[in-house]
Fold Polymer biosynthesis protein, WecB/TagA/CpsF family.
Amino acid sequence: MTTPPITLKASKRVDLALCPLDPLTMEEALFEIAILRHSSEYHYVVTPNIDHLQRLYLNPDDAFLREIYRNASLSLCDSRVLKILTPIFGVSMPAAVPGSTLTKQIFDQLLKPEDRILIIGGENAVIEILSEQYPHLNIEHINPTMGFIHRPVEVEEIISATREMDPDYLFIAVGSPQQEILASRIGQVARRGVALCVGASLLFLTGKESRAPEWVQAASCEWLYRMIKNPRRLAKRYAMNLIHLPGILHALRAKVVADAGVGVDV
């Protein structure tokens, strides 16, 4: 019997109060995902950012959602701002792994013609563009209705269809926390494959929405660029992130200090 390879994240995961983080570079994350794709078990990948942490911080009794993040095979730091702030609570991230960049790298570097690829979410027009961009790939698509996660029958239909398709790669693009919940639920019946919670990444990949210029990304200001481009949808979200950021950082720091056996001022 062959011993499975020891992956990078297994020895590096940082267990924080709100959710774990695997401190990997983009290259290491791609390596890990390639390993998960060939595993004989099902895996899912989450990419928490400050918006995710805010949701977990404001709902401390939501053990179900917190467990979903803890059970993820990979939990990658999606936010450059969060990456910069991690030393405040005693953790060092080697790099941010933005979900949009990760998704593009997976399509460009990992996906092969023989892979079965399923995308859950995204308009048909987006998937058509994606298929034109990557004509060598075998892409299947399920487009749930708005608010599907609250309709058990539709959720079960999606889970059943996913099991039947048995994808190697599953991209779930239905927004957070719906995509994380669905990824976890699919794991109850899936035989294998790796699911990635990708949010709006397909919109950037297909050019439906534009990424910030490279220098803006490098300055950790892509959030500001996106807010200026779409203030109606994002201004309130980012304002709430800013308001709750001190509490989020305090919760994360308290966990790290407690693990070290040192008191923390409250």
Remarks:
- The chain has one domain: 15-259.
- The beta strands are 14-15, 20-21, 42-46, 74-75, 116-120, 138-142, 169-172, 193-197.
- The chain has twelve helices and eight strands.
- Residues 225 and 242 are 16 Å apart (CA to CA).
